[in-house]
């Protein structure tokens, strides 16, 4: 009787041992599967990033030497503005300050470099930021960058939905005085890679949001008054009383 | 005694709640970022902890890792491992936000948004962000200590092997033993 009990106990111990071993193995395989899933997910992210990296681009006419912005004017003080055509604050900045900034450029006080970055592609359903920036490249190519930018901000879509399509952008281009060659350029998506380059260079320069304004490389609040004051300070002149 | 049994009964349900809560946090955080990897890279870059290129790579990988950890927690597979990973990420996030705060950076943490530089005049919310991540860290630590939860794939996988056929054996054995009117077997073993 007691020997049978011992047998039972021994059998139980062996079974427990086997169950333990099985559990250990199972935990190991589950862990390996989970880690593999993580590694694969990471590789997918890396692959998407590597695939989207800018390789070749052609800057449109009117771009600066670095090819990451469109130049207006040729004054001694350099004003860099980073804007996304979908960003609401960029529109209010544009509405408030564009005229006075254009005046500074026309007066020969500043060299304005506009960087039309595509930071907000996640905020439209059809990558409006990228497409509008590429179309602005086309507008620069045919000499109407400022005019086209004005039209884009005047017709800014709301965030979250679908922005104007390429066909809509061509119609907006006509309002800015652009013609068939511009339309062809937009359809060819000729400056899409340039837009990627502009955005990447802006990120590299530490621009994390829009609008960002630099006066001779110094971050300045995006308002007409602050920019005028910074330009006056950088140019060594006092702001005129008029 | 009652309290202990009460807790052992409640614990898998509490673990379930914590597990699903943490899963939701990671799935939402990852899902918001996965649609715009470049934007997330810029948010990482805004911390100025690594080079721009490294930040872009981390920014591209992170949302996918968050989603996988979220899915593991959601189905309850490799729960303890997923909890360790969650805790590790939370520690990294807390360290990143603290370091940005210490260096006087004026950034959005980018935890559930695009992140980046805040416009002038907007003050960052570092303290609430850190408190929130500490709460998430506590949830992860709870799961490391109590990984067993209801409705988990881990438990489902455990059953057919160790608790299926051998359990029937055990029942037979106990019956035969009790019919022998001997001392309880637990004391002998």
Quote the average pLDDT of chain A. 91
Please count the helical segments of chain A. 8
Strand order in the largest sheet of chain A: 1-3-2-4-5
Report the count of strand segments of chain A. 5
The value of Rg of chain A in angstroms is 29 Å
Strand content of chain B: under 5%
Task: Say how many strands of chain B there are.
Answer: 2
Characterize the quaternary organization of these chains: heterodimer
User: What's the end-to-end separation of chain B, in Å?
Assistant: 24 Å
> Total helix count of chain B?
7
Q: Unreliable runs of chain A, pLDDT <50, ≥5 residues?
A: none
Could you report the average pLDDT of chain B, rounded to the nearest whole number?
82
- The low-confidence parts of chain B are 162-189
Largest sheet of chain B: 2 strands, antiparallel
The ordered string of helix (H) and strand (E) elements of chain B is HHHHEEHHH
**Distance from first to last alpha carbon of chain A:** 114 Å
Outline type of chain A? elongated
Shape designation of chain B: elongated
Please give the structural blueprint.
The complex is a heterodimer of chains A (242) and B (189).
Chain A: H1 2-52, E1 70-72, E2 77-83, H2 88-106, E3 110-116, H3 128-141, H4 145-154, H5 166-175, H6 180-187, H7 192-204, E4 212-215, E5 218-220, H8 224-235
Parallel strand pairs in A: 2-3
Antiparallel strand pairs in A: 1-3, 2-4, 4-5
Chain B: H1 2-34, H2 37-45, H3 52-75, H4 79-102, E1 107-108, E2 116-117, H5 126-145, H6 153-178, H7 185-188
Antiparallel strand pairs in B: 1-2
Characterization of this structure:
The complex is a heterodimer of chains A (242) and B (189). With 242 residues, chain A is an alpha+beta fold. Chain A is built from 8 helices and 5 strands. A 5-stranded mixed beta sheet of chain A has the order 1-3-2-4-5. In chain A, a hairpin with a 2-residue loop joins strand 4 (212-215) and strand 5. In chain A, helix 2 packs parallel to helix 8, helix 3 (128-141) packs antiparallel against helix 4 (145-154) and helix 3 crosses helix 7 (192-204). The longest helix of chain A has 51 residues, at 2-52. With 189 residues, chain B is mostly helical. Chain B has helices at residues 2-34, 37-45, 52-75, 79-102, 126-145, 153-178, 185-188, and strands at residues 107-108, 116-117. In chain B, helix 1 (2-34) crosses helix 3 (52-75) and helix 1 (2-34) crosses helix 5 (126-145). Chain B starts with a helix and ends with a helix. In chain B, 37% of the residues are buried. Mean pLDDT of chain B is 82; it is low at 162-189. The chains are: A alpha+beta (242), B mainly alpha (189). At the A-B interface, helix 1 and helix 7 of A face helix 2, helix 3, helix 4, strand 2 and helix 6 of B.
């Amino acid at each position: 009787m007691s020997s049978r009990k011992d047998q039972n106990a021994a059998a139980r111990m062996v079974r427990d041992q086997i169950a333990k071993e099985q559990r250990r193995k199972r935990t190991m395989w589950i862990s390996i599967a989970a880690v593999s899933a993580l590694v694969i997910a990471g590789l997918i992210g890396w692959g998407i990033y590597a695939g989207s990296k800018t390789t070749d681009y052609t800057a449109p006419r009117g771009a600066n030497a670095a090819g990451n912005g469109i130049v207006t004017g040729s004054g001694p003080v350099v004003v860099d503005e980073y804007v996304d055509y979908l960003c609401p604050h960029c529109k209010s900045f544009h509405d408030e300050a564009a005229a006075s900034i254009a005046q500074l450029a026309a007066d020969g006080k500043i060299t304005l470099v506009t960087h039309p970055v595509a930071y907000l592609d996640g905020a439209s359903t059809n990558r409006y930021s990228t497409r509008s920036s590429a179309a602005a490249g086309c507008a620069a190519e045919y000499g109407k960058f400022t005019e086209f930018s004005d039209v884009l901000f005047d017709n800014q879509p709301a965030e979250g939905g679908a922005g104007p399509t390429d066909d809509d952008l061509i119609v907006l281009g006509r309002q800015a005085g652009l013609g068939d060659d511009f339309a062809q350029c937009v359809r060819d998506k000729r400056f899409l890679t340039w837009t990627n380059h502009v955005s990447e260079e802006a990120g590299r320069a530490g621009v994390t949001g829009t609008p960002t304004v630099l006066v001779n490389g110094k971050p300045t609040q995006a308002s007409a008054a602050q920019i005028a004051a910074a330009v006056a300070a950088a140019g060594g002149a006092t702001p005129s009383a008029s | 005694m009652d309290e202990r049994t009460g807790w052992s009964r409640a614990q898998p349900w509490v673990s379930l709640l914590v597990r699903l809560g943490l899963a939701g946090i990671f799935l939402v955080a990852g899902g918001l970022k996965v649609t715009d990897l470049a934007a997330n890279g810029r948010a990482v870059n805004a911390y100025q902890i690594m080079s721009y290129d490294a930040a872009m790579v981390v920014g591209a990988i992170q949302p996918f890792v968050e989603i996988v950890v979220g899915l593991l927690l959601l189905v309850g597979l490799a729960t303890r491992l997923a909890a360790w990973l969650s805790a590790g990420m939370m520690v990294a996030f807390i360290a990143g936000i603290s370091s940005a705060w210490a260096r006087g950076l004026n950034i959005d943490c980018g935890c559930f948004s695009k992140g980046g530089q805040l416009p002038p005049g907007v003050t960052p919310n570092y303290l609430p962000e850190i408190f929130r991540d500490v709460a998430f860290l506590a949830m992860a630590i709870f799961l490391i200590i109590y990984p067993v939860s209801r409705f988990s794939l881990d438990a489902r996988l455990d059953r057919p092997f160790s608790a299926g056929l051998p359990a029937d054996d055990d029942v037979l054995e106990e019956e035969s033993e009790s019919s022998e009117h001997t001392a309880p077997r637990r004391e002998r073993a």
